[in-house]
Amino acid sequence: MRLISIITSSIFLFFILSWVWMNYPETRSFTLDFVSKKKFNTLEVRYSAEAIMENNKRTLLKDSNHTFLEPDLKFHPYLLMEVKYNRTHDKTGEGIILWSLVDGEMVINTSSWEMTHGFKDCITYNADKENFKIINALATRGGSMDRENLSRILNVDNDILDSWIEGCRRKNLIVQNGNHYRLHFEKPKLQVMPETKVDHSIVTKAAKYASRINKRYRPAQIESIAKYAFGNDFAIRKKTEIYLPIYSIVVQNPDGSLMTTYFNALNGKKLSQTFHLE
Questions:
Q1: Which of 74, 81, 76 is nearest to 49 (CA)?
Q2: Which of 137, 169, 191 is the last residue of a domain?
Q3: Are residues 228 and 265 in the same domain?
Q4: What is the CATH number of the domain that holds 132?
Q5: What is the pLDDT of residue 273?
């Protein structure tokens, strides 16, 4: 009798856990993170902290009263996707995309680590396929367009166009000024090729016991936005999570205050002040 009770309880628990696993992506993400906590894939560190400090010494240390403190190395999560897409009407393009799971933006090229601007809000406000019809149309014209040209480009009935526009306005993705509509991002950068330009080979290796930055976005959110943004012919062949090594270079000022600057350990370059390291 006791054996039957144990088996019944085990089956019930199995179905409960299966339901949670299938219906709660956060649970899957947490579990996978926990399992892989001791080991994860990271992009190769090409520049040491000492080399970066030496190369930027004149900029970071204003005089002899300013001193470097011990640098810190953290790892920033990205989604690496192998993709294919329509490069032209008669040619298919293939490549990879690096997309930040913290900033919500795509890396345009690895040399400067230039990134898009606007996808983060699209993820935050759950932009969908119809929203991106408006967003992409505006992006092709520098981010702004009047209703007449918008209607001509999209070639849909006025009722449908009105519903698409209103959907974007409700999500704060566009704003209206008279008869003109514009993207509601400062200096939007969305009209890009669906491929990260890689100026040197992407090498990954296993790392252990390192400090990792928490993810703000799930891979599934990145996948959805990429598919909406880049159209029906965009396909993701393979995806994996990798980490970018980031140095925190700290300078102590004469008054005891600290100034922290972040550097990309892959290309040795300073990161934007808007870069998130939390």
A1: 74
A2: 191
A3: yes
A4: 1.10.10.10
A5: 58
